Amino acid sequence: MLLVCMLSLVTFAACSTKKETTGKEKTLEKVRVGEVTHSLFYAPLYVALANGYFKEEGLDVDLQTTAGGDKTMTALLSNGIDIALVGSETTIYVYSQGAKDPVINFAQLTQTDGTFLVSRKKLDSFNWSDLKGKVFLGQRKGGMPQMAGEYVLKKYGIDPKKDLTLIQNVEFANIANAFASGTGEFVQLFEPTASIFEKEGKGYIVASFGKESGKVPYTSFMAKESYLKKNSATAEKFTRAIYKAQQWVDTHSAKEIAAAVTPYFKDTPADIMEKVIDRYKTQNSYATNPILDTDEWNNLQSIMKEAGELPKEVGHDVLVNTAIAEKVIGK
């Protein structure tokens, strides 16, 4: 009888442990994240998912692609998502419209433009003046890709309104298809689409807007001010997971990173993934920590002002929260 009782206690203990373990799994806090596009440009995000960094922090991240800055911000403002990964310029637009609950940037992911100039024809050599008189299929008006593109064109003495035919009324998600169908002689594309087009002979990468436009908080994680106040611990856990991924990406090769994020790009060939990631690493597109500093914020507004899209200048301390990131990295 004593032996039976002991065995029963062991069985009960084992069941209790299983329930406790299962309970812990069920207590993962769900966080809904909307990414403006699905691109290897956001490799650290997928590394955080693949390596389990979010789960280590007790978070269950539900990632969805919200395709375009306007749609992403609409989803955030309407509580369709909790956190948005989109260009920091969107927070300025929302603030300038008198938002009572402004959107705050709290963790930077990329620090350069992520687009490339693709030519329909293969060029033996390229000069930015080659764009003059041509049809250029650009990105959405007022979006960071388009503003960075115009900034670079002006840098090389090209007036985007006079020196070429600029098309910017195509939906973000349809730009690549429009170019593949014959629209434009040059196009501004994200990766891996640009490299895939090059491999298929549909276009040829001739320049990088990221190299030309300098450091800028191109894409960052943001949330409504009310969300951050109510869920400060969640935001900190989220940022810590991103920081772990940023450090991992910074210390690993393009081949290792490509292998890690493969589950999120099953239709992209391994050689393309490695080439794209190496290109982004080489031009320092991936931020190595989540802090969005003042210089980058000011450069963002300079680019917006140059494009005629800056409603009004907004102080770094108004729409950027660095306290969370600073706490995470121990600064």
From TrEMBL:
Pfam families: NMT1_2. Keywords: Signal. The keyword Signal applies. It comes from Ectobacillus ponti. Its main location: periplasm. This is ABC transporter substrate-binding protein. Gene3D superfamilies: Periplasmic binding protein-like II. It is found in: Periplasm. Belongs to the bacterial solute-binding protein SsuA/TauA family. One of its GO terms (cellular component) is periplasmic space.
